[in-house]
Amino acid sequence: MTTPPVDPTFEAIAALVEEAIQERAATDGPATYQPLWKRPRKPKTRKEKNKELREQRKRINAAGLRRHAAGQSRRPRARQNRIGSAAARRDARALSRLRYSAVWLD
Length: 106
Prior knowledge:
Distance between the termini: 102 Å
Low-confidence stretches: none
Strand content: under 5%
Largest sheet: none
Number of helices: 3
């Protein structure tokens, strides 16, 4: 297997870039930038931790209240109410059938 021919200008540019990188590292020292996920964690103070926990408790409590209210709104109504509304629906259905039929024209 043969290697492809290397462009001499490309090699020269790569060497110049590498040299500049080495030179810069020698003058500046090691790179100070570190990606966020590699930085050491700064421990939180007790005050910060308590504040965070207080906010979390408040959020969870509010969510619980919302859930409770939502559950309350879906409770079934009293049986008497349901029977009355069912009868009303039946009557309305009968009237609607009459309205759209020609029975009452006779």
